[in-house]
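Exercise: predict the fold of this chain.
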Amino acid sequence: MSKKVASLFLVVFILTGLLAPAYAMEIENEGDADADNSTVTVTSDMIKVCNLVFDGNGELYNSDGDDVTENFIIKYNDFYMNKDYISIVNAFNEEGISNIYAHGNKNSAVQPIAFMDIPYDEVVVHLVTQNEFPYNGKSWYFIVEATGTYVYQISGYIYSFPTPTINVSYSGLGELFSGSLTSINVTTPVLNSSKNEASFTVTTQHEVSCPIPGLDYITGTLGPFTNVSNFKIVANY
């Protein structure tokens, strides 16, 4: 949280000490609301990620860096078969899924000639948690999507790989919160020695605007939060 906002909170507490019980009640109620499925919404970007993962085109990692994809799919496949995306996203939180990688638009060249333009759509999802006052423990998913087209030579290597297009979105913030991207850096894609893989890294910072508990019409800022997304595009035609 910025020093300016922290100072504002300090002044508020000094001048309005009698509001302290209301602050605690607001924070507690917010947590209860987040636990209620009826208040949860799932964005179209997160639905796409869920579809890719359960169709075998993604990986799930817990906070220890373990790949738990297979066990998660087996355990929650009934949710997916019923298109119960709210329960799937809740399961991400319950199972401690901190990073999700999803891969789309593979094997779809647009012309059958020596050089082919092959599109890709790769997604990295980060679990972000606010660990300070006033929303300690609040979490959401920050979604980084890389799209583009690379030139593939049919003899088996990537001929060129232009800079990708990057889009970000949020899932699970809640209607009273809004995310804002404050900085982004994309490294130049690098081909491996065999020229059949391209790698690049996207480093982002974002902030979240939030209501101040107990006060109307005043907005605070959470963050900034930094996330590093590592992408690897494997030529597979």
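Check your answer against the key: The first helix runs from residue 3 to 15.
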